[in-house]
Amino acid sequence: MSHSTAGIPEDSIEIDLDPKNWEEFRQLGERMLADMLEYQASQRERPTWTALPEGLRESFLGPVPHHGEGAARAYEDFRRRVLPYATGNAHPRYWGWVRGSGTPLGMLADMLAAGMNSNLTGQSQAPVLVEKQVVDWFKDLFGFPGGASGLLLTGGSVANLNALAVARNAKAGYDIREEGLQGPRLRIYASTAAHTSIRRAVEILGLGRRSLCLVPTNDKQQMDPVQLQAMIKSDQGQGMRPICVVGTAGTTDVGAIDDLQLLAEISSRHGLWFHVDGAFGALLALSPKHRQLVAGMERADSLAFDLHKWMCLPYEIGGLLVRSEVEHRETFALSAPYLEAIEGGAAVDEVAYRDYGIQLSRGFRALKAWLSIKAEGIDKFARIIEQNITQASRLEALIRAEPELEVMAPVGLNIVCFRFRAKNLQDADLNELNKDLLVKIQESGVALPSSTRLAGQFCLRVAITNHRTRLSDMDRLVTEVLRVGRYLLARSCL
Ligand SMILES: Cc1ncc(COP(=O)(O)O)c(C=O)c1O
């Protein structure tokens, strides 16, 4: 082997990760695309969910491959072992937790974004302008001022974390970035029905769980404003420092919306930060029919929202708006010599997104929102939200018409909690029966509700954030629940 002066063998072959044969690769790509479009188009014909078959788990235990098998074989393996065993949320009768169903255009947009592989840290590039435009659209839709800041994130949990970081720094009364946590205990108020991501955020931010004050809810699962004020007063009396009220627009369990006007009033009266967790409920602002439900949200200091839930865009995409651009930036911004912007060069920021969150490198998730809103128009998304609410009330009516079924919480939005019942059964037996029922329904592949417990009572929970659901799917679910419930009841001889 001959060597150059730099010690590199002259006859060595330099390698890269591009295909050796572009034509073959193009054919594989076309096949992948055709397969995934077919997968999307034929959702209704497949089971909602398929349990992992025996041996599948073990098949993922192999060691790291040191030599590649080629893209075609790896793809075949994906088709065989991964694709059929997904969560199922692309299916029209998937209503578990709060999961969006994804869209074909969103899927293609993610491919385009990955193809460009832009890093949206900031700098001088059109993708940053795309994100800025999407954020501007949502500022407008949610009634936030033009000077507010915002960015797209991975989802509601991260948006809540970012928002509470800003709230903590803005309201602590001293320089937390410099000093770390000092002095009196800071207090954040959220209802007992608030999402767990609020608790996680409080813990991660170093405030300690005792800084989160969970305010009881009324019979509609809304934060009780009288108790909130009493708790703020009592905390102040004990030398603690209240800093933030978290309102929820759409609680996870039942879709309740706090009285956001009132919470905005109370926060402002006490000089507190007002954050709204609107992971899915914020999107109600798109609908002229339902926007009243979230009135007051536009007064928030910060607002978390998701686009992978009720806008059905593929995971992951959520967003955060912060009324005060300065307070937002001051929580995260840092400079470094390697980030210096030199006039006229590539490093000059259109928006320095890295200064508004914890990520330095950021993906082009904005593209799927931008393309989808341009292609469909925002009104179409509003109509889908309205359609899901109509479907939930249809389900409620069907349940109320069946003596063997029971609605377990008021249905205000898109979430229906219910259970199968039998006259002679006590709550403990009903809980067991309904657990079995849920598993059987999920395993049947007909539909996929999830569950919750309301006042200790186990319920089936249908949360419709799905553009593929049709009214007739509600009838199908009720028929199946009755069939399986009766079967289980007869089998158990209870
Ligand atoms: C009210 C609420 N907030 C926050 C979240 C968390 O959102 P994500 O799953 O996008 O992190 C959820 C998820 O269901 C939610 O319902």
Task: Describe this protein's structure.
The protein is an alpha/beta fold and 494 residues long. It folds into two domains: 21-59 and 70-103 and 377-494, Aspartate Aminotransferase, domain 1 (Alpha-Beta Complex); 118-376, Aspartate Aminotransferase, domain 2 (3-Layer(aba) Sandwich), CATH 3.40.640.10. It contains 15 helices and twelve strands. The strands form two sheets. It has a seven-stranded mixed beta sheet with strand order 2-8-7-6-5-3-4, sandwiched between helices. It has a five-stranded mixed beta sheet with strand order 1-11-12-10-9. Strand 9 (405-407) and strand 10 form a beta hairpin. It is globular, with a radius of gyration of 26 Å. The model has no long low-confidence stretch (mean pLDDT 96). The site of pyridoxal-5'-phosphate (PLP) has 14 residues, from helix 6. The site of pyridoxal-5'-phosphate has 14 residues, from helix 6.
Whole-number radius of gyration? 26 Å
CATH class term of the largest domain: Alpha Beta
Q: Give a count of the beta strands, DSSP E runs of length 2 or more.
A: 12
How would you describe the shape? Answer: globular
Strand order of the largest sheet: 2-8-7-6-5-3-4
Question: Would you summarize the structure shown here?
Answer:
40% of the residues lie in helices and 13% in strands. The chain has 494 residues and is α/β, with parallel strands linked by helices. The longest helix is centred in the C-terminal third of the chain and has 23 residues, at 378-400.
